[in-house]
User: Fold Cell division cycle protein 27 homolog from Cardiocondyla obscurior.
Amino acid sequence: MSAIIDDKVVASAQSSNTVKEDPIVALTEKVNALYLFRDCYYETHSSDDATKKSTDVEKELKDTLSKFDECKGYEIDGSRAMYYYLKGKALNVMEHVNPQAEELLSKAVKLEPKLIEAWNQLGEYYLKNDDIKQAKNCFVGALQHDRNKESLRNLSVTVRYEETSANEKQAKNIQQSVEYAKEAVKLDTADGFSWAILAVAYLSSFFTVAQNPNMLRLCMSAYAQAEKDVKMKSDPDLFYNKGVALKYQEEYDLALQSFEKAMALEPPWKLPRNKRDELLQYLKDIQNSINNNGYVKPKRLHQMIRGLNVKHLGPYKDGSYTCGGKSVKLDLIPLHKLTLGLNTEKVVFGKVVCWIQDSDCIPFAFCLVDEQQTCIVVTVYNLAKGRGVTVGDSVGIPEPFVIHQKFSYMNNDFDYRSIRVETPVVLVVNGRKLGREQQASANLQTFKKTS
Assistant:
């Protein structure tokens, strides 16, 4: 009999605890678990389950919504705004937009205008729906109540997507994107997501303002900070965008690895695989072109090399040129004598034997052969669309910066040197220095986060 009484006491205590449980705390934990399930899906499932992810997330959503049904009534018990916000956030977990999420989140911010989380979630709903204006209004509205990192991060993304026909306005938007992301980082320097958003802002600046290697270095520094946050280890967007940055920094081995990491974290996402395959093909084309002197037949190559004339060095033929108001001495050296890094006070000269096609068209790449029949690839940044050099052109490059690629990937061996040229205006083509019209104007590329 005493055992029966004890069981009843225990049951009564459990019932009492259930009643006293804060429903908002319980719902918050449930919604957070839902997002964790979605974001870390491939940590608990194999890539073979890729086709089931959406269905599995939807099942978790239904289970989460059932918890809201259990707590029904609490939305009118002093926590209505939080209840609406949490339910709206839960419905916002899927890739497709759910109008009920907008309805609930809108109710939440009307009931509690200072509920920052609801403003941010509503803004993310509009951003997912490509309603940039409404999204921006939400994030700006949130910041009027509190300078928080989530709103700042979201604004950094949103201003990059604003449509504008003027290059100057695009550049200002990107700079504003950088500033919002910087402020978010300052509010929490340990938050990897904020660092990742800042990295993408820097990467967008590389394409929009100028293809400046310093901007890529800032980008890579931000990614290094982002990866210190354990939460970012499961973020495929981070590794995809990092791969893009590494590609333009010409750290191709690391770029391929980064794309591969993004593929592993989100197997159904085609973009990382496409970028990996495109880059691999680009590198194979470079290696084969160098190995075969641009596929120019020996007789034709000999004729091209015989056509090299020192007068085609133009302003560099006298052994010096003016830079920043001072004269810089230049010694003409063969390509095989170039050293890694910056070759100060040196100039090289050769014939263009081929172009290397790249899907992104950045950089403009071509193979150069000199009198000793040494072949090297040249990558030119900030080149205006439709501009470049032609097979057979004589090209002079002052103080060349040399990179050595030597690595293996997927049974492909790469071992070649390249010259990186940051601006086309330093090149001399057929005796004439290229003009400012060869310089690229702003070229915006955005890197949208996936759901």
Summary: Residues 352 and 389 are 8 Å apart (CA to CA). The first helix runs from residue 2 to 20. The two ends are 57 Å apart (CA to CA). The mean pLDDT is 87.
